[in-house]
UniProtKB/TrEMBL annotation:
Name under which the protein is recorded: Deltamethrin resistance protein prag01 domain-containing protein
Transmembrane segment boundaries: 51-69
InterPro entries named among the record's database cross-references: Deltameth_res_prag01
Protein source organism: Petrolisthes manimaculis
Keyword vocabulary terms for this entry: Membrane, Transmembrane, Transmembrane helix
Signal peptide: none
Domain of life: Eukaryota
Length: 87
């Protein structure tokens, strides 16, 4: 019964707003964005050099890891049955 009364009280209360009114709000414009400086091509080339080095490093690491795992016998890639010489 107490929960029913509390539910009725909560229904009659107006919802609270969790925000405040800002009186001096200035909407952002395109003039507020930073202006690019320098050559875009130089920046692009520097980033691509870095990304390409990361790509090559990742490929080398992955290839080295797979080669090590194959040679150490940790992974069998399922090329076919292992052929052993019968003596």
């Amino acid at each position: 019964m107490l929960t029913r009364a509390a539910r009725n009280v909560l229904k009659t209360c107006p919802p609270r707003r969790g925000m405040a009114y800002v009186a001096e709000f200035k909407p952002p414009t395109l003039n507020d964005l930073p202006v690019p400086q320098g050559s875009w091509r130089d920046t692009y080339n520097q980033r691509q050099r870095k990304y390409n080095l990361q790509l090559v490093g990742g490929l080398l690491f992955t290839g080295g890891t797979l080669a090590f795992a194959k040679e150490s016998g940790l992974i069998f890639f399922g090329y076919g049955p292992e052929i052993s010489s019968k003596e």
